[in-house]
Specification:
By secondary structure, the chain is mostly helical. It contains nine helices and no strands.
Length: 182
């Protein structure tokens, strides 16, 4: 017999089954090591990005950050996705978000080459070539033992048609690391 203010056995059983199912889906994989890591979510997101499924890619990159809130690659991947969405739709909001995400990536990995490149390209595309060069020059000054900043400066200058400066930057990169394949 059911009393006012109580739930029936059937309702109780349904609630308990749902709780058990929730526990199996969310908690058990974490305890057994079967959960997807930030790298796994990033990999899934990259595949979706490459297929042009940007909203789904963003979701996966956000899952990666949910797994590891300091994952520089997830911030970079989000930045690139918003960058592309901003360029395709001419949406300044997406480009602003992209810039913030590139900077967040660099907060966690100050030597993230692809992130420096992406941010420099974004700055150049939004008529801030001087800031793009300053970004890469500052990186080169902070890390004089690394050839990557010089290579990225060379790439930027080459894209602007300044082959002389590009060559000088590549020569500096080679003097730092003659074995750098880039």
């Amino acid at each position: 017999m059911d009393y006012p203010g109580t739930i029936s056995r059937k309702s109780f059983t349904v609630v308990m089954h749902r709780l058990l199912l929730w526990a199996m889906i969310t908690v058990l994989p974490l305890l057994t090591g079967c959960g997807i890591t930030a790298n796994g979510w990033n990999s899934e997101g990259v595949k979706l990005y490459e297929a042009g499924h940007f909203p789904e890619a963003i979701e996966r990159f956000q899952y990666a950050l949910g797994t590891d809130g300091q994952n520089a690659d997830a911030y970079y991947n989000l930045a690139v996705t918003y960058h592309q969405m901003g360029l395709r739709s001419n949406d300044q909001g997406f480009l602003t978000e992209s810039e913030a995400l590139y900077n967040r990536c660099l907060d966690f990995d100050g030597d993230h080459t692809d992130c420096h490149r992406g941010l420099a390209v974004l700055l150049a595309q939004t008529d801030r070539q001087d800031k793009a060069v300053a970004l890469l020059n500052n990186w080169a000054q902070d890390k004089p033992h690394m050839s990557a900043p010089r290579v990225e400066l060379a790439r930027l200058h080459q894209e602007w048609g300044d082959t002389q400066t590009a060559r000088l930057q590549l020569e500096k990169a080679c003097s730092i690391d003659k074995n750098d394949a880039r």
